[in-house]
Amino acid sequence: MATVPASVARPGSDAGAMRIDILSEAKRQGHALTVCSIVHDELYVLPEFFRHYRALGVDRFLVLDDASTDGSREFLAAQPDCTVFTSDVRYFDIVNGRRALHAWRQELLDRYCVGQWALFPDADEFLVLPPGRGIRDVIATLEREGSRSIWGLMLDMYPETLAGMRPDGGPFRLDGGWCYDGGLHLIYRKGWNKPMTIYRGSRARLMAENGILERDLGWFKRQAIALGFGGYLKHNMIFKVPLMFWQEGDVVEGSHQIAPRPTTSRILAILHFKFTPDTARKIDYALSTGGYYEGSRQYVALATLMERLAAKGGSFMGRRSKRFTDSGDPYRTGAGRWS
User: Is the confidence at residue 88, as pLDDT, over 50?
Assistant: First the structure.
């Protein structure tokens, strides 16, 4: 096992407070586009993750495995285009005031991706492109517009009912009968610090419809929920930067934001799979560790949602629900914004 040399880390980095080791190196040496990702026990989605991003044009994967025990690490090590890293700290540890997740991504991008375009999806995030566009078309457009990055909409995908989350449904596939909430979600204009959220998505809708609220919302918002507008109330952040031309001095500010910010009004769609046959396992892990954001707050809400959906018949569907048929769907229904 080779240790990534601390001497190549940028000044002021977190390398002195953690160690990143190379478990196995990619056999393919040349590369044009890189995925940089962090995983923990994601074997359920990893085969489709690699298939999807390879088809998109990715030919190098940099993946830090956070102590997986489900076979993820062995799967990653067997991929010829993947370099696998490990660390002596865990996802939820704090490294020089930062979550290890962010410190890891910063170090890998600084060490391997300066002067290159890179994607940084989580294992349950699948970037899809506008109809008729390839990743090189997208990058060329951003370069013409003078933007080194672009915002992405995290579009929560779900089955029609809870039956679609049973663990005996076979391997994960993007063409597995998924649904999503269509329509406009985000608007961004040059000069803004971040996108404006217009519609907050299916998870916010489902939480509101099932009475999972964190505080007294007041009369107006209670009426909005009663009228079916729960998807407009804040629950979770639905945007992040999925693609960037990395340069020295760029900063991973969090799980969703990187500095400097995008300067294009275009928005890519990211299929985000929070409701799958693997969700129950993830909820159990998050609740047992409490290590995710704010004591795994989002997973506490997800656990409650599963219970209440089951009591009501198990349907995820709402008036905005659309069936996913191909990667152009989110753009045709107004969720992704390219023109």
Answer: yes
